[in-house]
Design a protein that fits this description.
Order of helices and strands of chain A: EHEEEEHEHHEEEEEEH
Largest sheet of chain A: 8 strands, antiparallel
CATH superfamily of chain A: Electron Transport, Fmn-binding Protein, Chain A
Helix content of chain A: 10-25%
Number of domains of chain A: 1
Number of helices of chain A: 5
Largest interface: A-B, 60 and 61 residues
CATH topology of chain A: Pnp Oxidase, Chain A
Strand content of chain A: 35-45%
CATH class of chain A: Mainly Beta
Oligomer: homodimer
Chain lengths: 180, 180
């Protein structure tokens, strides 16, 4: 995994992929699968919606740290499986054969097998809606990985895989943020 | 367009498609293209992030109504074009040959050419983050439309088209919301 400039981090989440969110509660690592995420700016600002029913919620809101990891299509059963069990009684890194890699800024681990990872700090919470506002502090991308197609949850048990890519850079030139 | 049960409306946004947001300020219709959206629950709760730099913002926050319309891949240049001009000096329905259809609950129009439309009310705003919280009040889906592939903005001028669909319903059975 090589470092990705932070001003490009939003391009990892903007297409709306399934995301694995790692936390560390001071004793153990955990992972949750989430698709309720949103980009909020060009400076690595993100939101996600979750709540206390999720075991990761306590670690996320108490440590105020997490890593957003982007799995690819070959990791679909891992992503679904992570969502179907709880960190309360399961070591998800062990169960799904994932490799926890130490980050540089937060205690939550990166996932080596993922296409991309973003170390994040919780900068705000909007409790009445379960919105957690995150600021990315470092981003990583595995450009050597062959499989780069990500997954989009429909929410009914179906997942849409990335297809063709269409380039409209020229048409959008005057509105694209600099350096992206 | 046929009516889609409201408890399925989140499946239109959960995959993270490019969205056209229509408003009506009491005098005229307008459209903006947005990709900063998030599903917030199984009961047609959504968020989007925007701000006063966007001409639609005033109509959206003053009327507290909008329609979320989902364009398909054949509408890419329309979706990009809508994002590159302003409702301040442009009738976007006329410019892009789109048909405004009257909704049942809000003054903002549906877009006939889109795959799906969700009539929404603004139920809250989180001003410090530019987050607008929406509640869907009616949803429509054009199941007769041949082209159903939606678009996912990368944010750098590229757009990912929906590819293959993978079914993990059986694996997710115990966590899927009822009736979806």
């Amino acid at each position: 995994m090589e470092t990705l400039p932070l001003n490009k981090a939003f391009t990892l989440l903007e297409p709306g992929p399934v995301v694995l969110v790692t936390t560390n509660d001071g004793e153990k690592n955990n992972i949750m699968t989430i698709t309720w995420t949103m980009v909020m700016g060009f400076s690595a600002e993100f939101a996600l919606t979750t709540g206390p029913w999720n075991y990761s919620y306590t670690a996320l809101t108490e440590t105020k740290e997490c890593v957003l990891s982007i799995p690819t299509v070959d990791m679909l059963d891992t992503a679904v499986g992570i969502g179907m069990c709880s960190g309360e009684d399961t070591d998800k890194f062990e169960k799904f054969g994932l490799t926890a890699v130490e980050g540089s800024h937060v205690q939550a681990p990166l996932i080596e097998e993922c296409l991309a990872n973003i170390e994040c700090r919780v900068v705000d919470t909007v409790d009445r809606h379960g919105i957690i506002v995150l600021e990315g502090v470092a981003a990583y991308y595995d450009s050597k990985r062959k499989e780069k197609r990500t997954l989009h949850a429909v929410g009914d048990g179906n997942f849409v895989v990335d297809g063709e890519i269409l380039d409209r850079k020229e048409m959008m030139l005057e509105k694209l943020p600099p350096g992206v």
